[in-house]
Structure formats: structure tokens, C-alpha cells
What we know:
GO terms for molecular function: diaminopimelate decarboxylase activity; pyridoxal phosphate binding. The chain is α/β, with parallel strands linked by helices.
Amino acid sequence: GVLQIGAVPLSWDRLGIEPGPVVIADSAAIAGRAAVWQMAMDEAFWDGYGMNGARVYYAGKALLCAALVKELTAIGLGIDTASLGELTLALRAGANPAGVGLHGNAKTDAELELAVSAGIGRIIIDSLPEIDRIAAIARAHNTSAPLMVRVTTGVHAGGHDFIATAHEDQKFGLSLATGVARAAAEKIAATPGVHLIGLHSHIGSQIMDLAGFEVAARALLTLRRDLIAAGISVDEVDLGGGYGVAYTGVDAPGPSQKLVADTLAAVVRTACAELDTPVPVVSIEPGRSIIAPTCVSLYPVIATKDVTTESGQIRRYIAVDGGMSDNIRPVLYNASYSATLANRLPGGATVSSRIVGKHCESGDILIPDAELPSDITPGDIIAIPVTGAYGRAMASNYNMALRPGVLALADGAASWWLRPETLADLFALDTQLSET
Ligand code: LLP
């Protein structure tokens, strides 16, 4: 890619930035991955015989800023949001409201008010009381709000990743099995101020095996058939996000955009034929699979030390500026990453190394066990790839850390999409702190 980690000596000078944790985004790679999703879906869901085409909504929770909204909407993607902040950002960055969606299991009045007044294309409801709240707001605006019902499909298969949000006893969605999802659709159809546009399912995240999506799609399409039979039309079915990516060299590659699109199209086509219903518009909401592989995090090495483990081995600790405040995923999910020395060629042998952050927690580990050159020393730069999704987006100010900037590389030039946070940004919130 643009950065050519390992091939070109990298320096903070060459990047034109101060040393510190930073997320480098390859803007061409982002546009490329988004365009491939859109093309794969368009191709798979268009045959001139009743397949209506497809829509791709980027799940903004993975990483969101105005530049991303502009790049992705220019390619034709919609933006999926899940909070007042994400929704406001998407709209202010110029996304066409018709291509914006709002999720959430606890949507506030402020979120619903903005969604309805801006006229966004879909609000995905996650509870029954929400329906009346939205309807009241929409009637006050003399409009009708387009709703989808988030359905808990009950998809579960032992040992698969998609267990995460598909089972019954978790907070998301309305149950298919107990009839609540159907009741929600019927309630929407009967309530002035709202109308039903579709059914939605999101079964989990970082999913490598597409079988769960097929089961969920069938479940949604069957509910749709029942609703159609009851006189309630359902034009769209959204199969959610969750398509996995490889994080390290030993991971299998995630399902390609084309494999996902072709697999979903095949199951939708077959199921609709069996159910004797027209094929709906199909949409998806990938976040991670668009953004994760397009970013690399850089960290300055601050300190190293050798520690003798309980089994008598030497383990090298490499402490970097950064850590769990800019990437919580290793701590929170045991997520794996790999690391490379990025600023020079390595000298000599490798040593079992643990990359740790600077926070006041012994669990602040970015990579527990990496084979790294034994001559890594303060001043070196460590690169950790595949950090585009849920890194900066879940960053915190723990220990009053400054959240890293996102530096976009395009056509050989670097520019900030998000500038690095400053102490002034941080202290601006403190009403009792004097200027000096
Ligand atoms: N749609 C809905 C309704 C979602 O809840 C999510 C993710 C997505 C789409 C996008 O999923 P993706 O394609 O990015 O897998 N923080 C975790 C991931 C949480 C995902 C939450 N929902 C992580 O760092 O792995």
C-alpha cells in the first residue's frame, strides 16, 4: 500500500507530524473496498428478472469523520448511525438524509427528533414503546417516519462467532420466536405517523462463516411472507453487518465482498421462490470489512525492559506511547494483532516481545506475544496494521491520554481527517481550570 511498511524507512519527519500514536488511513483503499462492496451487491442483486438491486450502508460506529462520509457517499453508499453524534456528523458532512439510517436499543428523544425532522431514510426500531414515540414526533412534523423492525432471528450454531448477537437472551432486537417482531410490524402498519419499510437482522461481528447469514435471511423472508399474507407490504430486508477480516498473517482471509454478495443473493432468490414472494430490496451494513484493513497504527517506542517469566524465560516488554486508550480491542476481546518495526531494517535475531501501552493497568497490552527484532529501542516506530475499525472509534481519554489523529494518505500526500487531540481540547471541558 501507500505506506510500504518495511520497504521504505518511515519517520515522523517524512510524515510531517509530531511523534505520537497516530492512525494512518489509506484513502484509496477505503474507496476501493467500498466500491467493490457496492459493485458486488449491485451485480449479485440485479438480473433484470425481479432482483431489485441492493444498498450498502457503511456502519459508522467502526470509524466516522466527515471525510469518510464524503468519500463513501460519493461512491453511493448510505451511512448507518447509532447515536446522536454519529447521526449529526453524517448529516452535517452532507450525507443525503434518504441514505442515512438510525439504530439503537435506547434511542433518546433528541435522536428521534433529529432523525424525523431531517427525514432520514430509515429508523430501525428495537423496542415496542419506540413506535409510539416516533409516531408522535412524526405527526408533530406532519410526516410519516419510515421504520424497519430489528428482528432477533434466533440464529445460533455452536462454536460460531455469530452467536454473539443472534440468541434470544440479549438486549438487541425483537424476537421472532415469541411473535414480538411480527407484533411490532403489525403495530407499525396500524399506527398513523409511521410506516413499515422493512425487516432487519444483525447477527454479530467479525463473522467468517456465512452460514449464519443464510439462516437469518430465511427467517426474515419467512416473516416477510407472513406479513405480506396479512396485507402488510415489506419492501426491504437488511441483513446487517459483521463480515470478518483477517487481523494477522495466520488468520484466514475474511469472506470477500463478492462471496458475501453472491451467497446472500442466492439464498434470497431461492427462499423467495420457495415462499412465493417477490424479491425485496436487500441492504447490508458492513463497518469493519470496509475500514479495518485500510488503516495502520504507528506508535513511538518509549521504553524496553527484559523480564524473567515464571518459567524462567526472558520476555522483552516494549512500551509504546499509546495503548488501551487508542485500541481497547486486545483487552476487551482478546483480539489479535501483529506488529512490525517500521522505521528501519531490523538488525539480527528476534526475541519474544510483549507490546504494552502507557496506561496504569498491567492489562494494558496491545500484543501479548510478538517475535520482534531484538534491537528495537526507544525512538523506533512500531506499526500495527488492520486498526481501522473500532480502534479510534472506541478510543478513550483514560489517564487523560490524547486520542490519536487519523492521517489520510492520498496521492502521495498526507492530510489530517481527524487531527490529534490536544491538551487544550481535553481541558476545554474543565470549568474550574485556569488558563495558565
Ligand atoms: N449493523 C449493526 C446493527 C451493528 O450493530 C453493527 C456492529 C454493524 C452493522 C457493523 O458490524 P461490522 O460490519 O463492523 O462487524 N466493537 C466490536 C464490534 C462491535 C460491533 C457492533 N455492531 C469490535 O471491536 O470488534
